[in-house]
Amino acid sequence: MNGNGTLPSVLDVRVNFGGRSSGQGKTKDRKARWSVRPSEMSNKTFNPIRAIVDSMKVKPNPNKAMISLSIGDPTVFGNLPTDPEVTQAMKDALDSGKHNGYAPSTGYLSSREEIASYYHCLEAPLDAKDVILTSGCSQAIELCLAVLANVGQNILVPRPGFCLYKTLAESMGIEVKFYNLLPEKSWEIDLKHLESLIDEKTACLIVNNPSNPCGSVFSKRHLQKILAVAARQCVPILADEIYGDMAFPDCKYEPLATLSTDVPILSCGGLAKRWLVPGWRLGWILIHDRRDIFGNEIRDGLVKLSQRILGPCTIVQGALKSILRRTPQEFYHNTLRFLKSNADLCYGALAAIPGLRPVRPSGSMYLMVGIEMEHFPGFENDVEFTECLVAEQSVHCLPGMCFEYPNFFRVVITVPEVMMVEACSRIQEFCERHYHCAEGSQEECDK
């Protein structure tokens, strides 16, 4: 109250901070003006797929139904539903009323125990403390990068490879170095090139197996060679194994951690692909550190990072035990048989088209197709090629530029078989229309 018995005006209030008045005059440190700018992290965040696809101004052919072979979502066309046991597990978890509150940031202990038990083996033992549940495999990768690398360090990323690695790393101020995969060797890693990139600032090596976008599955022998490089250079591995166990029947998938005792590995996985529920957003990190190289620091760091949000959906966590225990093997087998059949169909059809060089896949949901650009002089690059394919044939594939690999395009093989046949037929028609013999290759064209 002032001397007149009335409350002072807010304009008369002066608050003292450290002996200085907060009132008007030269004591004021900040000029009052609007200046709201995006953060450095947001400015550094760049998704090449979105940038390329969103910049496409082309419209599909109105006389042909659109066939999208671009999105790695197996649920889009409804031909690959999850198993009824998986759906029932979610219904039961919801009806129980036990999973409506917050869970620990790393996930329910019971759910982490289930994951540890499911992936535990003598070659790569796991306990609940070795498991952190995340909001999808994408967040698992983000947490692993955040705990392993600092601003100014670098990570090693496959080329061609999943663009999210670069998107996440560069937004954190981490340099990305691309190591080459070899299409002529079914996309094996160029190990000499890989090792040449390693320096004192290398924080980790990302190994994606089975691969998006390549559809490749590394042999045990090749994985051992990769581990040998990592061991020799003392570089930990981030293993993106979201397509784990999704190798085709004639190929064997080996979890990387089962082949190593001396290289620390953070393996990332989730429900999205194998169980065909990408929208449920449940992923995990498996910590493999048999020589205690990570120690408590990396584990504690992952726990702290997980506390930035309170983990994945609790309903899905509540359903996890039943999903892992009750999903019948027939469901997995049927999914892989379908994918293998579609892969063979697509590979065979595209391999017969002059100017295209598909690489036969061994797993996951994709294959990469090389474009002999010299035979398609009407197009400057793979982006123009795929744009025109949409405009003329209403078939949408992602250009290789999205994966740092020009003169290729990626095909998603999860579409219904009849749609895959139609898409391949349209691609053939498109290529026949635009194909030209390169200079000096008339003899080859006449064959």
Helix content: 25-40%
Q: Beta fraction of the residues?
A: 5-15%
Quaternary structure annotation: single chain
Q: If helices are DSSP runs of H or I spanning 4 or more residues, what is the number of helices?
A: 14
Which consecutive residue ranges, at least 5 long each, have pLDDT under 50? Answer: 10-19
What structural class should be given to the helix and strand makeup? alpha/beta
How far is the first residue's CA from the last residue's CA? 101 Å
Count of beta strands: 16
Strand order of the largest sheet: 4-11-10-9-8-5-6-7
Rg measurement, Å: 26 Å
What sequence of helices (H) and strands (E) makes up the elements?
Answer: EEHHEHHEHEHEEHEHEEEHHHEEHEEEHH
Give the overall shape: globular
Mean pLDDT: 92
Largest sheet: 8 strands, mixed
Explain how this protein is built.
By secondary structure, the protein is of the alpha/beta class. The chain contains 14 helices and 16 strands. It has helices spanning 40-44, 48-55, 84-96, 109-119, 136-148, 164-171, 191-196, 220-233, 295-306, 314-326, 329-351, 382-393, 417-434, 442-445; strands spanning 16-17, 20-21, 67-68, 131-134, 154-159, 175-182, 188-189, 202-208, 237-240, 265-270, 283-288, 356-358, 366-371, 395-396, 398-399, 408-412. The strands form 4 sheets. Strands 4-11-10-9-8-5-6-7 form an 8-stranded mixed β-sheet, with helices on both faces. Strands 12-13-16-15 form a 4-stranded antiparallel β-sheet. β1 and β2 form a beta hairpin. α3 (84-96) crosses α10 (314-326). It starts with 15 loop residues before the first strand and ends with a helix.
